[in-house]
Amino acid sequence: MGFGQFLAAPEHKVTIVTYRDIFQSAVMEEGRFSEEYLKLSAVIKMDAADIKKLDVKVGDTVLVKNKDNNGKVIVRVESSGYDSHSGIAYMPNSPWSNALVDADTGGSGVPRYKNIEAMVSSAKGESITGIDDF
Amino acid sequence: MGAAHNYEKVRTMANAMEIYKLLPKTNCKECGKSTCMAFAVSLLSRELTVDDCPPLKEDKLKANYGKLSDLITPAQGASESGMIVHEDKCFGCGNCVVACPVNVADDPHGAGIGRAPTSDKVILRVKDGIVRTSNVQECRRFGKDKILCNGCIVTCPTEAIEFV
Amino acid sequence: MKRQSMVILLNENYHVCTGCALLCDDIEVITDGKKITEVKTACRKGVSRMKGCNEPMSPTVDGQQVDIDVAISAAANILKNSKSPLIFGLGNSTDGAQKKAIELAKQVGAVLDDTSSFCQGPTLEAIFNDRIKSCTLDDVRNKADVIVYWGADPSNSHPRHLSKFSYFPRGQERQRGWEEDRTMITIDIRKSHTAKISGDKFYQIPLQMDAEFIDALIDALSGKVPKVSFEFDPKRILELANILKKAKFGTIFVGLGLVYSLADMEPVVRLMDKLNEVSNFHLIPMVGHYNMRGFNQNLFNETGYLNRVKFEKGNSTDVQHGAEFSIVESLNNKTVDAALIIGTDPLSSLPRSVAEHLLDIPVITIDPCETFTSRKAKVTIPSALSGVECGGSAVRMDGEEVKFEPIIDVKDQTIRPSDEEILARIMEAL
Questions:
Q1: Where are the alpha helices (DSSP H) in C121-255?
Q2: Closest approach of chain A CAs to the CA of C236, in angstroms?
Q3: What are phi and psi of C113, to 5 degrees?
Q4: CA C266, C270, C273, C279 torsion: positive or negative?
Q5: Domain boundary at B29, B58, B76, which?
Q6: What is the pLDDT of residues B71-86, one digit of tens each?
Q7: Which of A15, A102, A40, A93 is nearest to C352 (CA)?
Q8: Taking the complete model, does pTM exceed 0.90, yes or no?
């Protein structure tokens, strides 16, 4: 990878907090393998300024990988709509967010679902990680 | 039901945009308003009537005149209060059902205490996970003595209810 | 307009929604005999659950469709040949099924755990052991004047929480309505849908700072000047402390945002102790699955532990408990060699890197619907959707027992057996 490519796809460090979304939960009850469930699950909500830094637009796909690089997903980026929260991003609970959660719980048995360290970069034009990709 | 209302007349609500689409869109000002959109809003609030727009009575707009007259029913129409439910945003939490002062007054032992409505007079109730309106003529924003009640708006987590 | 002839439609046909641990008991439905076609009063999630999924599960062994009896004996075989099986789930099962699963776990010497293991376990443990004062949701509706949602967003997790129990309904001692009679506070890291409803009583704190905020609040309640390391107006903490202090009947609803941010429950216990010194406060955990608390209660009654146990095969009194028997550590350490998953989907809800071990061991799933886990399972056994196709009882998030009957008439139909029946048949086959 050349320096130019590096510049073209800046990486941004975020802490991902998972949350529950009622529309996604309702769709999950109907079926976990639907297009609608994928659409509502494979999403990362970011600070508007952070999205700009990534050189992507709302609706574009981004690559999210965790700090140990053992989990990565391509999801759609959306603006959170909250007041400035640079460095924090939100994902609904789903197999997509769970691909990024660390297995190491320090022996506690409780994974860090609401404190996931990850890097986000543009994946413009690439398709969203599908259910069969897990 | 022994109630005094003709429930058959309760119908889907019109909104200002829907009305505007049926107007001449010439902004001729003959109604006294500066734009057709302003006239649409006046129709919705019953400040003016369909007959206040002379171009609507011309032949080419006659069909629209008819549609508008149906849309803007003179009384008891659900559109009277200008209430719109954005169904795609609503998830049936029922906050509006329980907070609505008319629901509480009409159904103190059902909707009033957070339970399923037990009276057929309530304005708001949830069906298939989405809030539905009925008897909107009873809404406090309706009629001569209307007040700008916003009980259902401020209690909605997703801004799914709007008045035009 | 006169409102003289109020028509009260007293409805004898209310049903219970098993969409979440609120167990709303005022649901009316219309059915076509086989499926529910219309649901009144339930939220969107409840409606989806009651109407049933589009992807029902079939009885299978190794991906081949089989007779349900064949699947049941294949399941029994797996458990028989396992040295250390894991039984996990049951939050979406009735009390009856849960008690059966405990028996089964004893019979085969299984590790038994449920989702509370990485959810509200610590909160419930503190309540079961009387370290924290709790109350019922009906108490909240009838009496609560101060309601706090901490790290919880019921608008998305338990949509009717505010309208049925906490903020909006009139109650025996709260007759004047929410604007005058109740104060609702939200403490969270983001302005959630619930936080919006709190208006200026939303206290936004940074990620992972809950313990610090709790201690600042305790200081404020003790008449000291509250201090936090992050930017936060101390006047607002004092204002919050003042509201809590004046409460006649306060309740804190604890969400996973708070649970996950703390190493243990000690800060919450400290806060509750302080609040009950200066005021009157209760705590209720925002339990997700409709009968997760039931599982915890049933296991606690039996063993003194609410989750994360291992039974010694054939010895019903020998039970071990600890984090090493949690589903996460059992899979991380590969200490289980087969898994029976009931009414839950660990391949979806656990970190992928943890759940991966499930791909290496024989898995049995019992569920009404296809799940990520069932698609990788060796044996799948379809079960009745509880609350719709089978009745029973469950424990609401506040500990109240709720009984329910099946909604769909199960006679004359080749209906799927209940979890309880399937577990009983597995035990027979053993």
A1: 121-128, 137-143, 154-157, 178-181, 193-198, 210-221, 234-246
A2: 19
A3: -150, 165
A4: negative
A5: B76
A6: 776 544 344 567 889 9
A7: A102
A8: no
Note the Cα C172 to chain centre separation in Å. Answer: 28
Q: Average pLDDT of chain A?
A: 92
Q: Which residue out of B91, B130, B156, B159 would a mutagenesis test of the A interface target, given it has the greatest number of A Cβ atoms within 10 Å?
A: B91
**Chain B residues touching residue A26 (CB < 8 angstroms):** 91, 129
Residue of A nearest to C18 (CA): A29
Nearest to B17 by CA among B48, B40, B46: B40
Instruction: In whole angstroms, give the CA distance from residue B33 to residue C169.
Output: 43
pLDDT tens for each residue of B43-97 = 877 778 888 899 998 888 888 888 888 777 654 434 456 788 999 999 999 999 9
Chain A nearest-CA residue for C56: A31
What integer is the mean pLDDT of C407-427?
85
> Which range (A115-129, C288-302, C304-318, C355-369) has the least confidence?
C304-318
Contact C72, C422 (CB under 8 A): yes
Q: What is the pLDDT of residues C74-85, one digit of tens each?
A: 999 999 999 999
Domain count, chain B: 2
> Is the Cβ pair C19, A112 closer than 8 Å?
no
Cross-chain Cβ contact B129/A26 below 8 Å: yes
pLDDT band at residue C227 using 50, 70 and 90 as cut-offs: very high
C2, C4, C6: best mutation site toward chain B, by most B Cβ within 10 Å?
C6
| Chain A residues within an 8 Å CB radius of B129 | 26
Whole-number pLDDT of residue C414: 60
Domain stops at, among C217, C250, C285? C285
Domain boundary among B45, B61, B76: B76
Touching B: C residues 194-223, CB under 8 Å: 194, 196-197
Domain boundary among C260, C285, C310: C285
Count CB atoms within 10 A of the CB of residue B16: 19
